[in-house]
Amino acid sequence: MATTEGYLRMRTSTTVLAILLTLAAAAPRLNAQSPHVASQAVLDAAIQHHLDETTAQREAVLRVLDREEVKSVAGRVGIDLTTAATAVAALQGDELAAAATKAGQVEQALAGGQSRVVISTTMIIIALLVIILLVVAID
Known about the structure:
By secondary structure, the chain is mostly helical. The protein has a domain at 51-139. Helices cover 81% and strands 0% of the residues. It has helices at residues 2-32, 40-65, 68-77, 81-88, 93-110, 119-138. Helix 2 runs antiparallel to helix 4, helix 3 (68-77) packs across helix 6 and helix 4 crosses helix 6. The radius of gyration is 31 Å and the shape is rod-shaped. It starts with a helix and ends with a helix.
């Protein structure tokens, strides 16, 4: 009789352990089926904001490439601005952000009707053009 009691206790313990392990394994799956924290409208707004920001960055770079001062520097260095302007469409992420930052620096340096291009502005323009052309060459 002692053997049967020991067997029943062991079987009960094993069954309880199996049930607990099954519940522990199922808990993460049940939690994964909870609804999303962000609504579809919030996700759509975030995507639209990113697209608007990307478009604004591209427009800033293209606006600088269209300036007469930039065309003059590019002509002296031997860079084709048509290729550079086409390459702006291929820029993404950090590359686009870096080009837009450089474009902002160029616009700021040339603001106020400055007709003379100083060396630092020339270097910024060249750096911008080189970034754009490197992206085209890598693709």
